[in-house]
Amino acid sequence: MNILTINTSASQGGAALIAHVIHEALNRKRGMCSVFVSGRNHRIYSSDVVSLGISWARFLINVFCYRIYGAEGVLNQKAWRRIIVNYYSWADVIHLHNVHGYYLPKNILDKLLKKPVVWTLHDYWLGTRRCAVPRDCVEIERKCMQCPYPHRYPSMSFRRNPSDKINRQALILKSSAQFVVPSVTSREKFIGMGIPDSRLHVIENPLDFPNDTLQSGSYEVRGSLGLPPEGHVVIFIANQVDDPNKGFAVLLDALSQLPIQHQWTLVVIGKVSKKLKKIALSKCLNILFTGPIIDRRLISQYLMASNCLVNPSYSETFGLVNLEAFAAGCSVVCSDIPVFREFECGVTRFFNPGDSKGLALALVGMYGLAVEAKDAQIARAKYLSKRFSVEKACSQYINIYEGALENTKDKSNRYRGG
Question: Are 233 and 307 spatial neighbours (Cβ–Cβ below 8 Å)?
Fold first, then answer.
C-alpha cells in the first residue's frame, strides 16, 4: 500500500514529530511504502522525504495574501502541481497531518480529497478554519473579526460569515475522508464543531522516546549538561516559546514569586525571540536557553536532570511533552485542562490555567517531595512505551487506511449504481 504523507514541516513541532515517526514506521512494514511531503523548515534529507521548497519570502507573501483575500498558499500552486504529477496516481491513500499555515491551496485540497484520505487532526484548525487553538472563543461559530487573540490572528480585510463553515463542512462530507484525533477530549470537541462522529477515530500519539537513560543518575546527567548539581531544576519545552497558548509568561511570573530564587534553575527548550529572552532574564536569576533540539535522546537527558517539567498550556489536543517527562522519570506541573487529566500517568500537580500564583504554590509543593524510587520510574517508562508504542499506532493507522480504501470503493460503486 502506498501512502502519501503530508505535513507543513518534516522536522519542527509536535505534529512533524508524530507524522515523521509514523512515516518511518510504515516504511519498516512489509508491503507498505510512504513518501513524506513537507513545506518549510525542511531539515531531514532522505529519498522518501520531499520538500516543496517554500522560501521565507514566499511564505511571507502567502501570509499577506491570506490576510487580504483569505486564500491559503497562493504562491504554492506550481510546487503542488509537481507533487500531484509525481505522486497522486501512485498513492493509494493520502495521509494529511497539519496542512494550514499558508501552505495548501484550496483547489489542491479539493483534489486530494478525491482520493482515500486519512486526516490526523493535531489541533483545531479544521473546526475553526483559522486558529489552531480557539480556547474558549465562541466567535468562531460566526466570524473571526475582533479576535480575542489579535497578537496571534490580526484582523483581516474581509468579513467572514457562516458560509465559510458551511462550505467547509460540505467539502468534508462530500469526501470519504476519515479523521484521526489523539485523545477522547479532542474527539468530543470536534464533534461539537460539526465533524461527523462516525468518521472520528482516536489513535493516541506514539511515544518514540529513549528511556534507557533512566539507568543513569540525575546528578550524573546534570554534570554532563552543565547544570548545577544542587537546587531545583525546572524545564519548559515548546516548539515556539513565544506562542501565547504555551503560557511561558505565566511560568515567568510564577518563578518571580518563589522564595530563595538562587536555588531555582529554569531550562527552556525551543525557539524564543530576543525580546522574550530579555524579559525572561530580567525575572529569573538562573536560566538556560538551549534553542530548538531535535535529538529526542538529548531532550530525555534534560528531562531526567530536571525535578519537574512545567506545562502551562491553555489548550492542547494531546500533551506529548508531559508523557515524555513521565517516561524520563520527571514530575509534571501543568495546567488543569481536560486532556492533561486524560493522560495523567505520573507524579503530577495541577493549577488553574493562567494562574501564576497557583503555579508558584505548586512548584513550592513539588520542591519538598521525595525523589521517586528508580524501580517505579523504570516500571512507568515500560508501561508508557507499551501503551504509546510506535508499532501499535502504526497498526491502528493501517486499519484506518484499509477502511478509507473500502469506503471510497463503496462510494464510487454507489455513484455508478453498483
Answer: yes
